[in-house]
UniProtKB/TrEMBL annotation:
One of its GO terms (biological process) is methylation. It is an enzyme of class 2 (transferase). This is Class I SAM-dependent methyltransferase. It comes from Streptomyces thermocarboxydus. One of its GO terms (molecular function) is methyltransferase activity. The keyword Metal-binding does not apply. The lineage of its organism: Bacteria, Bacillati, Actinomycetota, Actinomycetes, Kitasatosporales. Its EC number is 2.1.1.-. InterPro entries: SAM-dependent_MTases_sf (IPR029063). Gene3D superfamilies: Vaccinia Virus protein VP39 (3.40.50.150).
């Protein structure tokens, strides 16, 4: 199968929204890993006085992680799938959390404008048609010195990393998703990961798009070598001018 993109991918997520939370809840460490990545932003004072963009929020798992780690931040959560966003917005949230329906490529059209002090993106970049263009958009939305954390399936490069990912997808995830009528989306999930950047390559992609202090950080459990947190920063104006 070819990878799902743009409106086709959004439609697949719309359909899968009803069962998405149930499936991810069966993934050991899923929510704990998101909280770990949110903490890796390193924002002070629980986010007091700061604006944070949750890019590709889905049904709100990443939003929940940010709200727990940064309870005082102003959080704007964005997703291209109306179905996923409806599920997210229907949950109970504090007043500092706002949801916006928009693709990552057309944020300005939806009124999402910077500067943000931080951007968090979970499971997003391998799903966009042009990750470099989205990274440039994110860079432009950040205030000088603003921070980025990307939480993503990016294989470490070992044969065992791909083997474990394939075993989990084909042996567990895809059979269950097919029974739920969402086989195409979760076949896309497997392929989107194996065809996307390795962890090293994605770190270099961040640097190539203007981010500095880039770090690649592993996550524990069965996802070691499969899922990573990447952190980076938009340089300050003074540093850029050097």
């Amino acid at each position: 199968m070819t990878l799902l993109r743009d409106e086709h991918l959004a439609a697949a997520f719309d359909h899968a929204a009803r069962s998405y939370d149930t499936l991810v809840a069966a993934n050991p460490g899923y929510h704990a890993h998101l909280r770990r990545s949110a903490r890796r932003l390193g924002l002070p004072r629980g986010g007091e006085g700061l604006r944070v963009l949750d890019l590709g929020c889905g049904t709100g798992a990443s939003t929940g992680a940010l709200a727990e780690v940064l309870p005082s931040a102003e959080i704007t959560a964005v997703d291209a799938s109306a179905g996923m966003l409806e599920r997210a917005a229907a949950k109970t949230w504090p007043p500092n959390v706002t949801f916006v329906h928009a693709p990552a490529e057309r944020l300005a059209e939806a009124g999402v404008t910077g500067p943000f002090d931080a951007v968090f993106a979970a499971y997003l970049f391998r799903n966009v048609t042009d990750p470099d263009a989205v990274l440039r958009t994110v860079h432009g939305l950040l205030a000088p010195g603003g921070r980025l954390a990307v939480h993503e399936y990016t294989l470490g490069g070992r044969r065992t990393d791909r083997a474990v990912w394939t075993l989990v997808c084909r042996g567990v995830v895809q059979p269950v998703a097919t029974l739920l009528g969402d086989g195409d989306l979760y076949r896309h999930l497997w392929r989107s990961v194996v065809e996307f950047d390795t962890a090293d390559r994605f770190a270099h992609r961040l640097e190539a798009n203007g981010f500095d202090r880039v770090r690649r950080l592993p996550l524990p459990g069965w996802q070691t070598g499969i899922t990573h947190t990447f952190t980076g920063r938009r340089p300050t104006t003074t540093e850029t001018a050097r």
